[in-house]
Amino acid sequence: MQSQLIFLSTTLAWPHVLLRLVVAAALGGSIGLERELRERGAGLRTHLVVCVGSALFTLVSAYAFVGPHVDPTRISAQIVSGIGFLGAGAIIRQGLSVRGLTTAATLWLVAAIGMAAGAGYYSAAIIATAGALLTLGPLRVIAYRATRRFRGETERLLVEIPAGGSPAPLIEAIEQYGRVVSLEVAQEGDRRSIAIDVTLHETSSPRVVAAVAEIDGVLEVRWSE
Asked: Which residue has the higher pLDDT, 173 or 90?
């Protein structure tokens, strides 16, 4: 018997479709807003669109077509692997530091939240969103304080100078406010990236950054997260 695909336009009423997409937009947008407030590359709009897109793919996969040889999970299963390409684009390597890993992970998570919302599994979507916001907010502060207490007052300073430049002036400026614990140097094209772990005598991060930035030849200076 020849199989035939049947379009089910009445399987899920449009108010239910609207509700699921709105829930996906609200949950994905809440995580995106947190990323936006921290000035990350992928912010409110990106997370909202990814979450709504995942919900829509799930709706299409589960409710649009049905047939004897149709796998309703085929389309939605591609979201899991496909979102990896978008997440990879959010990861940026800057000298000795890598930025965007958390944002890439949140993109992956909002895709899962969108799938849950699209499937009508609201409780899982809401719990996952609450857990993500807790992890990105209060838990981040707790983890930072805990690791800082464990490591002492060690901070990492990332400095970019021209290729061939010496880190000696940097060390001299930093040691006015603390002690240099370790030093890493990496050469990339016409720039030299220097990562310096320092122990401050007191909370002097802004003054250290200002002192290093005033050194001739310094192209960029920042504290890593």
From this structure: 173
**Which one has a higher pLDDT value, 134 or 83?**
134
Please give the C-alpha separations between residue 156 and each of 18, 98, 124, 195, 209, in angstroms, as whole numbers.
47, 13, 38, 7, 11
Provide the residue ranges of all domains of the chain, joining segments of one domain with +: 6-144, 152-223
Which tokens sit at 128? 């996952």
Q: Are the beta carbons of 212 and 221 closer than 8 angstroms?
A: yes
- CATH code, residues 152-223: 3.30.70.260
Long-range contacts from 76-82, C-beta under 8 angstroms, 24+ separation: 76/115, 76/118, 79/54, 79/111, 79/114, 79/115, 80/111, 80/112
- CA neighbor of 86 nearest in space, from 105, 114, 60: 105
Q: What are phi and psi of 187, to 5 degrees?
A: -105, 125
Which tokens is 133 given? 């916001």
